[in-house]
Amino acid sequence: MIKLKSQKQIEKMREAGKLLASCHQALRKLVKPGITTLELDQFVESFLLERGAKPAQKGYMGYPFATCASVNHEVCHGLPNKNVLKNGDIITIDFVVNLNGWLADSAWSYGVGTISQESQRLMDATKKALYKGIEQAQVGNRLGDIGYAIQSYAEKKGYSIVKEFIGHGIGRNIHEDPQVHHVGERNTGTTLKEGMVITIEPIFNKGMPYITMKSDGWTAVTFDRSLSAQYEHTIAITKEGPIILTEQF
After folding, report:
1. Is the peptide bond before 80 cis (omega within 30 degrees of 0)?
2. Is 222 helix (H, G, I), strand (E, B) or coil?
3. Which of 85, 90, 175, 189 is the most exposed, fewest CB within 10 Å of its CB?
4. Exposed, middle or buried by CB within 10 Å (0-12, 13-18, 19+), for 153?
């Protein structure tokens, strides 16, 4: 069942989103060669706790960390660890903020040091596709319009989309209805209504779209070990158009 949010509830989620965005802005300065993903995870947890928020992922379905940190060919849900980031790596940091019981969710890919043009193009295309999906998050449009916009852009740029991991509704819970796929056909799927709050979070691979799981039971990786990138925002559907609750400035 889709839970529509009031304007007041969306404002509470916007506050969580602002905090999340400010944390990502701080991470930009920290992501560099020599740091570990575990250090980045500890930074995020401390950042949130010091500001009266909680890392909503920690403990969710047994997940042990505040963030997911996925490096290079890791698609998503990478476990923070003591491995040092190297010049040329790309890393996606994904986390959910719980501020006073309301949640916001955003993932962002970062280049470590000096990255290749190939990596930069992948990251740029994935981010652009996210915003093309957001453009379709209008009252009266349908979820298939979002998926179609993202899929069309991926095909235009020559990248594949990971279909196993999708966006979702969000509010007081991390995962609510509806499911938001990043492939689709126009004029299909659930109609978007004022008060819906969803995440859009495409994952693009440089190679094949197929994935496999690491032995840790959490981390998804590209089957062919090709590079992967992901960008995600939390979006409120309003009569005035989509509002990005996790926008970075």
Report:
1. no
2. strand
3. 175
4. buried
